[in-house]
Amino acid sequence: MEALQLIETIRPMVDDGEVPGAVVGVVDHGRTSVAAVGTTEPGGATAMTRDAVMRISSNTKPLVAAVALLLVQDGVLNLDDAVERFVPELADRRVLRRIDGHPMDTVPAQRSITIEDLLTMRMGFGFVPESACPAMKDAEKAGLGFGPPDPSAMPSPDEWLARFARLPLLEQPGTTWRYDLAFGVLGIVLARATGQSLDVLMRERLFTPLAMSQTGFVAPPQHLVPAFAQSEDGLMLFDNILEM
Questions:
Q1: In this predicted structure, what is the pLDDT of residue 244?
Q2: What angle do the packed helices 60-74 and 181-194 form, to 10 degrees?
Q3: What is the reported pLDDT for 148?
Q4: Are 135 and 100 in contact (CB under 8 A)?
Q5: Which parts of the chain sit beneath pLDDT 50?
Q6: 33 and 117 share a domain?
Q7: CATH of the domain at 170
Q8: Are residues 28 and 15 in the same domain?
C-alpha cells in the first residue's frame, strides 16, 4: 500500500473536523512513501506538509520502552530490578488502604516497584477515572504532568521525582494497571542507569540508528505545527509554536 492510498482512509476524519490534518508514511519492501492531507489548523488556509512535525504525546511511551529493552539486552538493567537501585527516593513505599482514602492512611508496600512494573504501568500509581482519589488530586497539584504535555510547566527530573516520592502509592506494586506516570519514573531510571540525559540516550540508541532525524524533545519551529486538544466544543488550541 502507498501512502496516498492510506491517506484516503484518513481523509473522512479531516472532512468531519475530527482532526485538521494528518501525515502518513508507508515503508513497504524498502520503498518509502509519505503523504499529507488537510491543514495545520481547523478551517485554516495553511496546508499540512509532508515534513510537518507533530507532538506525539503518549506515543513517546513505546519509544522509551524500546530503549529500556535495549538496555535490558545490554545487561545495564534487568526487568526484575527494584527501582530503588537507580532511584533510592522510591524505597520503602507506603500504599493507600483505600484508593479514595486520606493520603496519610497507608500501609507498607509489600514489595519494591520493579522495572517490569514501570514498563507494564503496574507500579501502583496513575489515572483513577472510576472514583474519587485525593492522592491523585495531590499529584495534579504537584504538577506531575497529568493531561496533555506541557514541557514548559514541568520541573526538572530530580524535582519531579522528589514530588512524586512524597505521595503514597494507590495500590500495591504489580497488582493494578494505572495509566501514565510509570513512564515518567522509567525515563528517570534510564537516565540514571546510563549517566545520560534521556534526550541524548533516546537519540543515540534509537533515533539516530533509525534515521529519525526530526524526532526528539526539541523540534525545529519551522516544521512544528500547532497542537490541539479535544474539548466539549470540539478541537481547542493547546499551544501554537508560531505565537511563542
A1: 45
A2: 40
A3: 66
A4: no
A5: 244
A6: no
A7: 3.40.710.10
A8: yes
CA 219 – CA 216 distance, rounded (Å): 7
| Residues listed for the chain | 244
pLDDT given for residue 240 in this prediction: 64
For residue 115, what pLDDT is reported?
98
Instruction: Tell me what pLDDT residue 210 has.
Output: 92
pLDDT tens digits, one per residue of 132-151: 999 999 999 999 987 666 77
**Three-state secondary structure readout of the chain:** CCHHHHHHHHHHHHHCCCCCEEEEEEEECCEEEEEEEEECCCCCCCECCCCCECCCHHHHHHHHHHHHHHHHHHCCCCCCCEHHHCCHHHCCCEEECCCCCCCCCEEECCCCCEHHHHHCCCCCCCCCCCCCCHHHHHHHHCCCCCCCCCHHHCCCHHHHHHHHHCCCECCCCCCCCCCCHHHHHHHHHHHHHHCCCHHHHHHHHHHCCCCCCCCCCCCCCCCECCEEEEECCEEEEEECHHHC
Supply the range of the domain harboring residue 231. 3-53+219-243
What is the C-alpha separation between 11 and 16, in angstroms, rounded? Answer: 9
